[in-house]
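User: I'm putting together a small comparison set for a docking exercise, and I want a reference complex before I start. The sequence is below, and the ligand is FE2/S2 (inorganic) cluster. Could you produce the 3D structure with the ligand included, as structure tokens?
Assistant: Of course. I'll restate your input first, then give the structure tokens for the complex.
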Amino acid sequence: MSYKIQLTEQNLSFDIEKEETVLEAALRQGHNLPYGCRNGACGSCKAKLISGNITYADTLPEGLSEEEHQQGNVLLCQALASSDLSIKSRMIETSTDIKLRQFPCRVTTCEKLNADVIRLTLELPKTERLQFLAGQYIDIIMKDGKRRSFSLANPPHEDQELELHIRYYEGGLFSEYAFKDLKNKALLRIEGPLGQFTLQESDRPIIMIAGGTGFAPVKSLVEHALEKKDYRPIHIYWGARAETDLYFDNVVKQWTIDHLHIKYIPVLSETDSLENWRGKTGYVHEAVLEDHADLSGYDIYTCGPPPMVNAVVESFPKQGLNRERLFSDSFEFASN
Ligand code: FES
């Protein structure tokens, strides 16, 4: 049996299933309630129960004192609903609402997706979770203190592990290490979440333009939008040199099969690889300009190498795009 949760401050409601915590139900439906550890210890998810009844699976969680409990406070990461609930809680609305934190983490997957891209998954200590907004990135802090930034490819509601797509660059400090020496179970140190490349509230259709591993935050944004039932039309343009560089082509194609509001336009730029290619060719931003003579009604999200992002920033407003509706994340590459 499911119940209804009402968030009084935001005037919104969502369903909760049996044996699901209030926080799990909120995140599953795209509502960013604050949290830290997700195991009842840190108190970050504390909220006020205005009406209704909750239970905890066990005893009172350690992050909530008896006095706080008596005053009607609840820990949403542990609270199970036994009736409809009204709850007063703050909500994470912008990237600045989340505290920047450092964590040790363990590599749980280090798999090559093609000759140049590795998919890395990282597990935080059991008592920790990284709260973030779709589209944000983390820094990996190397032993010498140098940092490398990587976008999170998983959506916020799937935060058991963090997913990164690492592109190989000759001389790249972390990418050389990742391709040559990094193994499962290796320990890393990360800091996050960072960045403001996040999904904006709007009713405009979306064009997403990814270059190479700029697909990583696009994946997070699209999966987050689907989770929160944001069904605006999404056109995904993915620019790459060769077909093998479209390393999650199957994932995007599956989105288009499952969700008719998602369209996928891969664009290849390297002439050697075009012999059997029936799709678009050339620069990815030019493909968008060809397809959309008037960009004035769109929200544009673009992420990837600086020349691609700069080309979008320079050319799209000439075709009607309102600059305030352009959201970008430019990968700056640093070598040793
Ligand atoms: S998230 Fe830490 S106590 Fe709920």
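Residues 3-88 form a domain with the Ubiquitin-like (UB roll) fold (CATH 3.10.20.30). The mean pLDDT is 93.
User: Thanks, that's exactly what I needed.
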